[in-house]
Design brief:
The structure is a single chain. The chain is of the alpha+beta class. It is built from seven helices and 26 strands. Helix 1 (6-16) crosses helix 6. It is elongated. It binds ligand LQZAQKY5 and molybdate ion. Ligand LQZAQKY5 binds next to helix 6. Pathway: Cofactor biosynthesis; molybdopterin biosynthesis.
Length: 401
């Protein structure tokens, strides 16, 4: 049986992902979205020379020890001083207020001694002192956030400062999730003999949600061909962009997901990857809909979603930068690997030696409690002989977007 290399599978998936489509959203709805058009400044920021301190706007050359300047007015944020500061004069000014014409420095009020309208200063400023010059932050026409970048709270703050009420961001896919298996019951159900709680969808939905417009949970369906066909028909009738099934992906007599998908018009691109866990992953398309058939084992489902669906979703959104694979020293040795690439559960640990990655030695793809401890997946190459503690290894951060 030939197994597809991981890179080939990712390439095959990315080739099916459509180009990003832009939609306008208001700033308050844009967090986490990915820009499809650059954010370009439409004005200089600050829009005027602004004071960085509460104090006095002065002509720097006029400030001499024991000399008094005459205060001729006040400039406050939102209400600047209209006149000009002449020789021997100063203006009371507050943080963020426009620096009046004639003044070329601001002295903070802690350095001032005031007698009525006369002010002397204990500091002799250089021109430009405590002034934020016009355009110092950004200039009209400057690209502030590029297309393909994800909006974060800090970037949204800049977008608002640039006076953009709405942004063009990538439309997110609508995702449908369906669990298959006769043995499955929803969480909270008393377990009859042979039954298993269906957990996969509860991990997959939040894993995929940050990239999705919606993640619809189509529940559990048994391994009966007619029921599975009917349920998948109703999934496709909802016209999702991406369908994710779990279970029934392997070669057993009840593993009928592939057969039913094919009968419903899905074209299969591949089935079975040279990896563990997650070997029986299948991927295809039905019209414009991408279809991922994940293995039922819970660790296999979460690992294949992380390794294959996440990159597809990033590509869908037009994200320009793929997250760098971490290179971290091992906190403990790894055992030799088989011919399949191993995505090894691991923990990120921080100690005196810095950050290290600690392998979790559980390899059972049904072992959920060890998965719950993992915040990294060490990418162990095919036929890797095993590495000593301290060796640098590649790892994927489970929570990385
Ligand atoms: N003869 C072979 N048998 C198996 C092979 C193989 O190559 N030859 N591959 C194994 C591998 S690797 C995997 S992975 C599994 C994948 O099997 P399926 O995708 O067909 O999954 P199921 O048989 O339906 O379930 C496997 C396991 O996971 C539990 N499960 C299923 N769905 C859920 C769910 N939603 N939540 C929680 N747990 C779930 C299910 O009860 C089973 O225990 O096949 C191997 N077999
Ligand atoms: O690949 Mo299966 O997911 O190892 O158990």
């Amino acid at each position: 049986m030939s197994l597809l290399p991981v890179e080939d599978a990712i390439a095959a998936i990315l080739a099916r992902v459509p180009a990003p489509i832009g939609e306008e959203v208001s700033l308050s709805e844009a967090n986490g979205r990915v820009l499809t058009a650059p954010l370009i400044a439409r004005h200089d920021q600050p829009p005027f020379n602004a004071s960085a301190m509460d104090g006095y706007a002065v002509r720097a050359a006029d400030v001499q020890p024991r000399a008094f300047l005459t205060q001729i007015g006040v400039s406050q944020a939102g209400a600047g001083f209209d006149g000009e500061v002449g020789p021997g004069q100063c203006v009371r000014i507050f943080t963020g207020a426009p620096v009046p014409a004639g003044a070329d420095a601001v002295i903070m009020q802690e350095q001032a001694t005031v007698f009525g309208d006369n002010v002397s200063f204990s500091e002799q400023p250089q021109p430009g002192r405590s002034i934020r010059p016009i355009g110092n932050d950004f200039a009209n026409g400057q690209v502030l956030i590029r297309a393909g970048e994800r909006l974060t709270p800090m970037r949204l703050s800049v977008a608002a400062a640039a006076n953009a009420p709405a942004l063009s961001v990538a439309r997110r896919p609508r995702i449908a999730v369906l669990a298959t298996g006769d043995e499955l019951v929803v969480p909270g159900t008393p377990l009859d003999p042979g039954m298993i709680v269906a957990s996969n969808s509860y991990g997959l939905a939040p894993l995929l949600a940050p990239y999705a417009e919606t993640v619809g949970d189509f529940g559990i369906v048994g391994d009966d061909p007619d029921q599975l066909r009917q349920r998948l028909e109703s999934v496709f009738a909802d016209a999702p962009d991406i369908v994710v099934t779990t279970g029934g992906a392997s070669v057993g007599d009840h593993d009928i997901v592939q057969e039913i998908l094919l009968s419903l018009g899905v074209t299969l691109d591949f089935w079975r990857i040279n990896m563990r866990p997650g070997k029986p992953l299948m991927f295809g398309t039905r019209g414009k809909t991408l279809v991922f058939g994940l293995p039922g084992n819970p660790v296999s489902a979460m690992v294949t979603a992380s390794v294959f669906i996440k990159p597809a979703l990033r590509h869908w959104l037009g994200l320009a930068v793929t997250p760098p694979a971490w290179r971290l020293p091992l906190a403990a040795p790894t055992p030799p690997n088989s011919a399949r690439r191993h995505f090894m559960r691991a923990q990120l640990v921080h100690g005196a030696a810095g950050s290290q990655v600690l392998p979790i030695f559980e390899t059972d793809s049904g072992h959920t409690s060890s998965m719950a401890q993992a915040d990294m997946l060490i990418v162990q190459p095919e036929h890797d002989p095993g590495q000593p503690a301290g060796a640098m290894v590649e790892a994927i951060a489970v929570d990385a977007f």
